[in-house]
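Re: export button greyed out
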Amino acid sequence: MNYFVKGNPDLCIGCRTCMIGCVVAHEGLHIFEIDPDSYTFNPRLKVIKTARITVPVQCKHCENPACMAVCPENCIQLVENAVVINTDKCIGCKTCMMACPYGAIEMQPDSGHRVQTDGSPRMVANKCDLCINSKRGPECVRVCPTEALTLVTEEDLEKENAKKRIAAARALAEVNG
Amino acid sequence: MGVPEIEEARVLLIFGYNGADSHPIVARRILRARQKGAKIICVDPRVTETARISDIHMQLKGGSNMALVNAMAHVIIEEGLCDEEFIARHTTGYEELKTFVERYTPEYGEEISHVPADTIREAARLYAKGEPSMILYGMGVCQFSQAVDVVKGLANLALMTGNFGKPGCGIGPVRGQNNVQGACDMGALPNSYPGYQNVTIPEVREKFEKAWGVPLSDHVGIPMTHVPDRVLKEKDPMKQIHAYYVFGEDPAQSDPDLAEVREALEKVDFLIVQDIFMNRTATYADVILPATSWGEHEGVFTCCDRGFQRFRKFIEPEGDVKDDWEIISLISTAMGYPMHYENTEEIWNEMIDLCPSYTGATYEKLEKYGGVQWPCRSKDMEDKGTPYLHKDGNFANPDGKGKFFCADWRPPKELENDEYPMVLSTVREVGHYSSRTMTGNCRTLRSLEDEPGWAQMNVEDCRELGVEEGELVKVLSKRGYCITRCMPTERVPKGSVFMTYQWWIGACNKLTTAHLDPVSNTPEYKYCACKVKKIEDQKWAEKHVREEYAEIRSKMGIQAAKEGYAL
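Workaround output, generated via the alternate export path:
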């Protein structure tokens, strides 16, 4: 089963440290360079604020991803429990962006600052990759000052479900008794 | 009380304080308290992050603090929820207060604050019954023309419920800025030497005269907020200000009524600015003294809970910069008073020996215990400072008792009117600190939020004006206008505009008033009349913002980004 990062609106204070952490994790030391073109500011999660809710929203790494199903270039794949976009192959057709029910995919300038033949920036689909290239795991989870973000694994989901089933069994016993 | 004790409170009354935007680290403590079962009462005109998770949100009309606090006192007294024993043993003036708040019924409170009378009752009961209850307050109390009264009113609530001098209670001012407590502790106030020793007391003056070997003035100086008047309006040349030394402040950005402040900065004969980066004020300076930043020097900060803490240098400064204390020593020496220190410890030792309430807070103790809360009077290693200022109900008054205080509600100075029908309140946003002299130079933070900033407005107001999210709008008051982006949100009430004060183009302090609290001299940043106008030609407005930003940046010598501004 794929993993995903879950935000807890009861703990989120809307500080957006996760968004900055995301950029730093994917851009590395480029953020310290003076040349403004040396890094791309493309947080792969967004803190959303409604009247009563504050929480970051990002890719759910669906089991049957709509984005993957519609990609005409087959550049969306399952890699290590994550749904990952191969931006090298992406043609920027925006189909995945429209297909995603979470609004988790955006078109962003390629983080390698590659350009097209006419010199214009190469735009590619961008979304959370669970920081699969980092040993530290998802950076948003690591940097959140209030521990509002957690990485949910298959094991976690199973454990939670097991607990719910026990609670359900007890409730049933009460009803019947 | 100390900041970590927030987690020990059972009820938190959070008044005019938005931790999530001002101090995320304190906000974390509030969340932990809640996780441990504490109830939260939030008093704020906006749905802040704290309001969102609170048990009771009193969404009051700005400028009604005193009425609400008095109404809460009324309920606590009327419903017999006072700590009678504490009142009898440790306080004076209770009977006067009791009579005084009689007319502040919850219904009268509702009339002024727009908080339903029953919500006021519920909140007062919850606060009074908490064991213990703690009050945290911030700039939503202090930045009004009636500010000090409200602080005393909040202290009334803590006094009448016995919430003083023990763990997890008390009344906590969560200060506006890093080390602003330290600045006050060190006498960066017009009326006191370090350690809150008043300049008008002859014995105090003599002590400092002897230590420093110079005659000292026995006159209270003038507060910073009076400087523009003393430059622009004062007729007596002896009272005029001719030279102004600004140090770690950006009045041309952060003071109210910027047109007047900037005129004063232009007209003053000589302006020195000492800071770590260029800022708005520095563009008016005759001399700029580049100082090291907090990572490049060491010293002591005071936390808002009176805790002295050492901080250390972690990188060597580069370029033509010096420590603040070295710059001051050099200037003093050049002006005829030779000043020489080897290090900050030498300065600290001189200072603590002159301040009885700090004498015991040696570097050795700060090192060993991680921090010391003043008063710490003895150098004996056993004196570890004072976590509870009013321990066991002992107060600093001569009779050792806490004094109840009566004050009627006064409305803010500039109310909404036909021409300016809305209320502007200036606030903070997380990511950019103060006037962003530091954070504006952090590229990722600048990418997250940049000029011209936002005006948070109620969705309905935006609809009526016909403006959408991100559209540039003009915000105007009697004193000036600025251009900023519109942010429709259900989190702010109708008729109000909330703006953050760090933007150069969306500079809301062009609009604010210089009305001051009579005691603290803090300006009424949280209330002035304004209006918002739609800008028909958005293309022109976008171009104008870009060009103005590029111009300010080039004036400050900042390398212009390719598109003029980020994003």
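The first strand of chain A starts at residue 4 and ends at 7. The button fix ships in the next patch.
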